[in-house]
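Notes from the pairing session

We agreed to fold both candidates in a single pass and log them together. This is the raw record for the first candidate, unedited. Please don't reformat it; downstream parsing expects exactly this layout.

Candidate A
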Amino acid sequence: MTATDTPAPRDPASDPHDGLHTPVLAWFEQNARDLPWRRPEADAWAVMVSEFMLQQTPVVRVLPVYEQWLARWPRPADLADDAPGEAVRAWGRLGYPRRALRLHGAAVAITERHGGDVPRDHAQLLALPGVGEYTAAAVASFAYGQRHAVLDTNVRRVFARSVTGVRYPPNATTAAERRLARTLLPEDESTAARWAAASMELGALVCTAKNEDCSRCPIAARCAWRLAGKPAHDGPPRRGQTYAGTDRQVRGKLLAVLREAVAPVSQAALDAVWDEPVQRARALDGLVADGLVEPLDGGLYRLPLG
């Protein structure tokens, strides 16, 4: 499914949610970004790589790493043949580097179980290591044009505002949100896949978390939150994205040293990146426990080889 595909003809009378579907799909046709994983030449592996990278990471940061990744590992088997530490190295500063290990694990499973081809079947996708509810639905929908509810933060926010009438969705996806998403899915499979991409793009570009631009929204006239006067969020506090001074920052600094090294790194070289020894040790222990760093004899460390 790509931004330039021509949507299949639909019968509005058979679509009880046409007042949402038609304007959002028309808006998407005119405003969808030209992203490499949406182009006709992007296969299911390219879509899967993009979905792993885009979790909690903006498109602008993903693009260069994504292109380098696929140039180096154009097929799952190419990545599976390399050491998991190389995946961590190539992940660079995208953040949440466990995603690199999970993507490597998925590539190994695809190679061993599916002959090197990303499976089409949703249940088989969901059975891959590192692939959860969202990623399985996204790959099945965006790569294979299937009908699935694809619920990322952007889609959940669009549905919360336009249908439920609240500013933000809950911190974690609820059963009620899943039911609503399934209710809103167009019946036609290809239209449903396009709707998934269109509602996600609307949340990314217009119905944003802050400074939403209702003047550009194709469904502003029927948005329940806007019609209610945009009531303030009254649910649990939204999770912040603090980074400075956290264990995440220390882990990132330690990993940066290991990514740039061609040989195992000494404890002293790692100690130099953070002054506070207790937090530094905790962060390093966490990296080892997560399989992102491999300790060696003699107080040396490296990215994992296997």
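Candidate B (folded immediately after A)
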Amino acid sequence: MTTVDATTPAAAAPPPPAALPPPMQLREIVFGAARAASVRAAVRLRIADALGEQPASIGELASAVDVEPDPLRRLLRSLACCQIFAETADGHFRHTEMSRLLREDTPGSLRNIALWCTEPWTWEAWPLLDRAVRGGGCVVNEIYGKDFFTYLHEDAPESARVFDAAMTTSSRQSAADVAAFLDLDGVKDVVDIGGGQGHVLASLLERHPALQGSLLDLPQVVANADPRLRDGGPLASRATLVPGDCRREVPVEADLYIIKNILEWNDESTRRTLANVVAAARPGARVVVIENLVDNSPSSFTTAMDLFLLLNVGGRKHTEDSMVTRMTEAGLKVTDIRPVNGSLHAFDSTVPATGRRQGVSDGS
């Protein structure tokens, strides 16, 4: 797509708005769906990708993304109200720090996350939040007559692709932080449990040339693992791809087990996963659980994701206490809790020398 570079100079950023009175604040909140829809529209129209380093007129932008000028101006004005794009004094539009995050080529882009959080199924599920709160469980099964991931792969393949892209984006962005954070002194082998495409594992293997590693995830996931880990990749000789379901079995022994952002689907799958890790691990092995916590987040994003998980899989984002409780109940001894970055916390634990527990099957 052609990038628009107009020559109009950018106007100075407007001062931050004064705090709104409570009635207006509430109106802003209940119209939140309009903001989310506006972001989705901007991403799907690729407006951020089309806008270059200089402000551009509505006519130039409309031509670049093949839309009508008047509706485009209305969309951009709505987004500019929340600092996504900005309007100059002469009616042109320019990038802001947030609008740049919607570009595909921006490091740390949130384009895929924005699409995932506004997929068509979300607009059917959110209005039923009261039902999920009343019943304590997900509503997706009720809407579609099947569990969430079955629905995605059978009925909404495009949404499934968006989900995969969003998870890949998120994993890539945090992998380097996790690799820099973890102290691997004395660790010879590591297994990433439910590690997706293996970005964390690849980052660890690159950082520690003597380390051996395994990636355990569903067969269709590990089949598309990070190319660095697959046959012919630079890390393949030190990586083992293990197809399987950690909720059924963890068939790998290692010095260190990493469990990142998968203990949030529902309490039963969390219990089974932790029990299976403890059953597989030798006494003294380390287990590091890495999660977003609802009680240690500087924004409302994690609490919103907590409700998102309730709706689609009956899951939850944990508090520090609830995570420690679940790990302790599984037989782990939690030894340390520290922030990895601004959004992730790591729970370091060991498998006691008193012996392994029996793994837990899902009954299937």
